[in-house]
Design a protein that fits this description.
- This protein is of the alpha/beta class.
- The protein has 5 helices and 10 strands.
- 31% of the residues lie in helices and 32% in strands.
- A 6-stranded mixed beta sheet has the order 4-3-7-8-9-10, with helices on both faces. A two-stranded antiparallel ribbon has the order 1-2.
- The radius of gyration is 16 Å and the shape is globular.
Length: 194
């Protein structure tokens, strides 16, 4: 077994917590407190999967995707662009936009990337922390398509394969590579698949 994969897998199993039956909390190492050793392993794994693609940029969504993409970018030696969830004075008014439905907030919001950071013909790799319902990835794909950039691949750290996201994305022609596949959180136990 790959050393980087083994570190990630063991960390998910040892530090992941199950809440409300279908929520997997990995905030002790991935999306609140950051374990740089684990992030470095994630970066290596994404490079092993996508390193031959000759990408120009990594695209992610704020907030949780930024650390993952930044660490991975060291291996690819490319910039990271992150889609912003809120309008602010420091965001260029000329943006590419994608729609994301939040199941936790029960609302649709727009994510945005300034047009000057994502252009026609650029080779893009999308990375994110989770795949559950697939909405964030769908929104980032809309941005890539709108910008006429070239999508080279999509990767997530953790896929909750018992939720409909991957199937919905597959039906739209979007292939997602998952580093870890969680097959069940029943009885507050994390079950992983291949």
């Amino acid at each position: 077994m790959n050393e980087a994969y083994e570190l990630l897998r063991n960390t998910v199993l040892e530090q992941g917590r199950v809440l409300d039956g279908d929520v997997l909390k990995v905030d002790s190492f991935l999306n609140h407190q950051l374990d740089v050793r684990v992030l470095n392993a994630i970066g290596k794994l994404f490079y092993q999967q996508f390193g031959e693609l000759k990408i120009d940029k990594i695209l992610t969504a704020e907030v949780s995707g930024i650390a993952i993409a930044a660490i991975a970018a060291q291996y690819f030696q490319v910039p990271v662009v992150f889609a912003k969830k809120t309008l602010s004075k420091n965001l260029d008014p000329d943006t590419w936009e994608g729609s994301v439905y939040s199941y936790t907030k029960q609302q649709t919001y727009q994510i945005r990337v300034a047009k000057r950071y994502l252009g026609k013909g650029e080779k893009i790799l999308i990375l994110d922390d989770f795949l559950a319902n697939g909405q964030a990835i769908k929104g980032m794909h809309q941005i890539v398509k709108e910008s006429e950039a070239v999508l080279m691949g999509t990767g997530v750290v953790i896929e909750k394969s018992f939720q409909p996201g991957k199937e919905m994305l597959r039906e739209k022609g979007i292939h997602v590579h998952s580093l870890i596949k969680v097959t069940s959180l029943e009885k507050e136990q994390i079950q992983l698949g291949q």
